Amino acid sequence: MYLIAGLGNPGRQYEKTKHNMGFETIDYLIDAYHISYGGTRNKAMYGKGLIEGQKVILAKPLTYMNLSGEALRGLVDYYKIDPETELIVVYDDISLAPGQIRVRKKGSAGGHNGIKNIIAQLGTQNFLRVRVGIGEKPPKWDLADYVLAPFGKEERAAVDEGIKRAAEAVCVMMTEGPDAAMNRYNQKQTVKE
Predict the structure, then answer these.
(1) Which reaction does it catalyse (predicted)?
(2) Which of 19, 73, 112, 165 is catalytic?
């Protein structure tokens, strides 16, 4: 069984903001695979179902981004998930252009507070992840203001394509393995305008 967690912030005011790429990817998977809503458990909204023949739990932590690890720790413990092989975390990344994705098997937080909290809570940085690009913050912008802002029209199409590719990468990670997903999705992508 896989736990697929998308990071973001709960609440209408955060919908469609740059920091909610993980939530949007989970929503895409829920719709594409008709995953039924399971309710709330361990500070996260979740659903259970099958994706490409694999049993999955899709989760959106309700702890707000910077405390994402609290929700994931509870779900990992409750469902007896091995975080190093059965957890996939999807989140935003300012170092990638809008719509680009990057698959990794492990790594540091890279300045991302949600990932920093997950590493602290799980006691490992060896977990699968898919990063969805949101683009660099403009000069003189505060980082928090940037990641909590919506995308402009010109970026939204590229981001929607990135969310779709992130969902596909999650499926490949489960069915063919993370190396296959990295080979397929970590190539330099041209972003449609």
Answers:
(1) an N-acyl-L-alpha-aminoacyl-tRNA + H2O = an N-acyl-L-amino acid + a tRNA + H(+)
(2) 19
Strand 87-93 to 54-61 pairing = unpaired
Structure pTM? 0.95
Q: Is 14 annotated as a binding residue?
A: yes
33 annotated as a binding-site residue = no
Q: Which residue has the tokens 């973001």?
A: 8
In the chain, at which residue ranges do the beta strands (DSSP E only) sit? 2-6, 36-41, 44-51, 54-61, 87-93, 101-104, 128-133
Was 66 annotated as part of a binding site?
Answer: yes
State how far the Cα of 31 lies from the Cα of 107, in Å rounded to an integer.
30
Catalytic annotation present for 19: yes
